[in-house]
UniProtKB/TrEMBL annotation, chain A:
<dbReference type="InterPro" id="IPR036884">
    <property type="entry name" value="2Fe-2S-bd_dom_sf"/>
</dbReference>
<dbReference type="GO" id="GO:0051537">
    <property type="term" value="F:2 iron, 2 sulfur cluster binding"/>
</dbReference>
<dbReference type="Pfam" id="PF01799">
    <property type="entry name" value="Fer2_2"/>
</dbReference>
<keyword id="KW-0560">Oxidoreductase</keyword>
<protein>
    <submittedName>
        <fullName>Xanthine dehydrogenase YagT iron-sulfur-binding subunit</fullName>
    </submittedName>
</protein>
<feature type="domain" description="2Fe-2S ferredoxin-type">
    <location>
        <begin position="2"/>
        <end position="78"/>
    </location>
</feature>
<dbReference type="InterPro" id="IPR002888">
    <property type="entry name" value="2Fe-2S-bd"/>
</dbReference>
<keyword id="KW-0411">Iron-sulfur</keyword>
<keyword id="KW-0408">Iron</keyword>
Automatic annotation (TrEMBL), chain B:
<dbReference type="InterPro" id="IPR016167">
    <property type="entry name" value="FAD-bd_PCMH_sub1"/>
</dbReference>
<dbReference type="InterPro" id="IPR036318">
    <property type="entry name" value="FAD-bd_PCMH-like_sf"/>
</dbReference>
<dbReference type="Pfam" id="PF03450">
    <property type="entry name" value="CO_deh_flav_C"/>
</dbReference>
<dbReference type="InterPro" id="IPR016169">
    <property type="entry name" value="FAD-bd_PCMH_sub2"/>
</dbReference>
<dbReference type="InterPro" id="IPR005107">
    <property type="entry name" value="CO_DH_flav_C"/>
</dbReference>
<dbReference type="InterPro" id="IPR016166">
    <property type="entry name" value="FAD-bd_PCMH"/>
</dbReference>
<dbReference type="InterPro" id="IPR051312">
    <property type="entry name" value="Diverse_Substr_Oxidored"/>
</dbReference>
<dbReference type="InterPro" id="IPR002346">
    <property type="entry name" value="Mopterin_DH_FAD-bd"/>
</dbReference>
<protein>
    <submittedName>
        <fullName>Xanthine dehydrogenase YagS FAD-binding subunit</fullName>
        <ecNumber>1.17.1.4</ecNumber>
    </submittedName>
</protein>
Amino acid sequence: MAEITLRVNGVERSLSLDTRVSLLDLLREHLGLTGSKKGCDHGQCGACTVLIDGRRANACLALAVACDGLEITTVEGLADGEELHPLQAAFVECDAFQCGYCTPGQLCSAAGMLREPGPSAVTGDLTEDPALTAEEIRERMSGNLCRCGAYVNIVAAVHRVAAERAREVAGR
Amino acid sequence: MREFEYARARDGREAVALCEPGARYLGGGTNLVDLMRLGVETPARLVDVSRLPYDRIEAAPSGGGARIGAAVRNSDLAAHPVIRRRYPMLARAVLSGGSGQVRNMATVGGNLLQRTRCPYFQDVSKPCNKRHPGDGCPAIEGDHRNLAIIGHSDACVATHPSDMAVALAALDARVHVIGPGGERVVPMPGLHRLPGAEPGRDTVLEPGELITAIELPAPPPGRSVYRKVRERASFAFALVSVAALLGVDSAGVVRHCKIALGGVAHVPWRAARAEGALLGRTAGPDAYAAAADAELALARPLPRNAYKVTLARNLIVATLTELAP
Ligand SMILES: Cc1cc2nc3c(=O)[nH]c(=O)nc-3n(C[C@H](O)[C@H](O)[C@H](O)COP(=O)(O)OP(=O)(O)OC[C@H]3O[C@@H](n4cnc5c(N)ncnc54)[C@H](O)[C@@H]3O)c2cc1C
Ligand code: SF4
Ligand code: FES
Ligand code: FES
């Protein structure tokens, strides 16, 4: 057993846990935050994606004990009260889901991705920070699988928010 | 998963002291936690080294090398301006591995020491010499489509899965280690070992040795790139990959050449014969094909992975042609 304290969606939580518990099981089973989904439990599908200290990560591969002292954001923590996160609004507007099982992971992954600097595997010139084209988004979101194949609309939704952010930055 | 103790070390010495027999270091956990869940790894204690103060990338002034802390996350390595400018093949290799999430979690030390993706190794209901020496290797008769074509043995035909390690092997990286016996530096290639009669040992590291940093010499002049062929466009391990650097003088003669292959061997495979065949020769597709053939003369493909020999040849030629047509 281990004693840990972490902040989940802004709320401090102290727990006594078996060292074998993953961050995903901590969230779902111990805290009742069932937004994050278990698709594979092997890091291969992205359904469990959360933000750890603001960076997207697979909660199924993180041991809860190793997250002691860290800040976790799940899909439940993305919205600002009743106001949807821009990605959530864009997913609704673009019809970016069918069954919805992958959606919490897609949303957290996209939220983390939009903050990640630098090139991706499909960027031509590595010294540039490329614009988030549909091709860049597909590559950067490849850790999130969708069994319903809603990819076209997922990319459109993420693209919409990425383009809004780029316009805001340019307008500043 | 078997029960285990968890300990977080404050510095390298403490980590080494905590890493008693049966214990394992924990980096990002993206490979180790997965293998523990599969029952392949059953450590009695995890020593978390992901928060050790090995999280910096120090670059010498322009023209020099770089030192990468073992706890640097893969994504931070690939996003670092100096790595992108000075070692493009390394940035590209890291970016081609895993997903954004995996790269955010994975550490440089853990990436080097990740275990093979051989399907039998990951399935504890099957025998495997790498897990239990002497039990046999079902891959030799079975599913070895994605396993080794060079340097394998009768005991094991597994491949090393890391993309990053291929670039490091091409760049003559030096791996800094501390352990119960003190500090030492292990060159790459040289960290990973061929399976021989001891497939259980992936590397030359002794139990309890901790990677603290990777040192990169100044890159030789020339252009470099990493290319990876896989079954889908993203988020898959390599079938074959190549890290290549080519420096050609104004007369078109190859003056600098570094080539390493991924997906073909138990180690990131430095293609020394291909390099030898190219140095001093006039650059061009004919020379590249001759160099690839010189290297692949060593290949001993298995019944169902001979396609990798052709793939590796074509990939070497295409990659070098991209660097210097
Ligand atoms: C779905 C998925 C897809 C992937 N695809 C790719 C891919 O395409 N290409 C690729 O290259 N990789 C891929 N990976 C593998 C990934 O890159 C590795 O799992 C990761 O780099 C391991 O780093 P880590 O810090 O998480 O290591 P851990 O899992 O924490 O540790 C791995 C091993 O290294 C040891 N270790 C860790 N740190 C140290 C240290 N400092 N000193 C000594 N020993 C240490 C551990 O004891 C353990 O044995 C993939 C992984 C997943 C889950
Ligand atoms: S190839 Fe190596 S890892 Fe795979 S089953 Fe054979 S012995 Fe085990
Ligand atoms: S449940 Fe974590 S990646 Fe699939
Ligand atoms: S919407 Fe069903 S899995 Fe993506």
